[in-house]
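Our consortium's second objective concerns turning raw sequence data into structural hypotheses that experimental partners can test. To show how far this objective has progressed, the report includes one record in full. It was chosen at random from the queue rather than selected for favorable results. The single chain below, 427 residues long, was entered without modification.
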Amino acid sequence: MTLPTDDEARALRAHWTLDPDVRFLNHGSFGACPRVVLEEQSALRARLERQPLQFFRDLERLLDGSRSALATLLGADADDLCFVPNASTGVACVIRSLQFSPGDEILTTNHVYNSCRNTLQFAVEQGARIVVAEVPFPLSTPEQVTAAILSAATPRTRLALIDHITSATGLVFPIAEIVRALGARGVEVLVDGAHAPGMIPLALDAISAAYYTGNCHKWLCTPKGSAFLHVRRDKQRKAAPGAVVSDLRSSLPLEIPAILPWTLGHGLNSTRTDRSRFRLLWDLVGTVDATPWLCIPSAIKFLGGLFPGGLDELQKRNHALALEGQKLLCAAVGCERPAPPEMIGALASVPLPDRPRGEQPHPRFIGWDPLASRLLANHRIEAPVFPWPTAQKRLVRVAAQAYVAPSELNALARALNEELQAESRAR
């Protein structure tokens, strides 16, 4: 696909409220919400505050509409979806709902997102053991990912937590193949799809993972705090319950779903029969700002209307731009492409020379780095630098969204080259 021109990118950037003095090449971390979607959220919040009681009377119907639009995009049944504020919460709800026994193993990879890796400690406290599959980066084929994961699976593997698109390294894992291969060994998969919705085409029913969670506030450009958890139908009632669920089953004459939300609200003991217990529990979690979830239909409509070919054309365009960014960064650093084109979505990461002696990543924020600070302060470029695979090593990641211009990618490559040369002179 032909790369966009700078003029085309600038025209598209007008749809966002981003600082015009910053080259924003880090859409992947928190996304960026377009003006039209922010206006929709403001209208919803005004409606809420004008008549709060009526808004909450209407909320169930409004959530149904939003969930239906999202399900169509995801290739899923709307009744298998529930809303969460972020993908990390989706992972936590699953892990905290399941019960593990001493000797059980939870399989993940060295590319796992830090907060999700921390959540696995809930299983460790029950006696489970975390097994980490070492997926190489750089790498040359998707098969290397599958092989590394399968080689780490054992008869004691109870669950696998696998990223669909990795955060720091920006790789699209062959998730459907991984789910099928692990399923053949009796291992269920919890997919962390934080970056996937909006970045790549999805068909969750076809992937058929037991659990799949993803953010909408990243590549679908909804307001912050908008994500979903998809629970396969057979896992809504039949998954091995955790201790909390077991206690509830013994104290309530109700069918309690195996996967529970972060708050047990009014749905727990509701006597309604028009909805499943799963739906009642997940939709009635207390007073929250539901407007980020309710903006999902308008965000899908906005992104689908940017180009004649709809969201598919946007995704292909962003993919081509990410590959261009990968090429430019590799030239600036002097390395080969670290991943093949089929493993790139709209993110591309490139390994950097080791950080200067004595320099460390920022201790309070994973992904922040002194080099990233210099790129922003000296060049007005927002691009993340991550420690990988150890604290002394690092990589830079570029994110390609509709508003990114090719000249901004060139500017990052030049700035990176300049900063690395300055580091080299100072060694």
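The partners drew two points from this record. The first strand starts at residue 23 and ends at 24. The mean pLDDT is 93. Both points have been shared with the crystallography group to help prioritize constructs.
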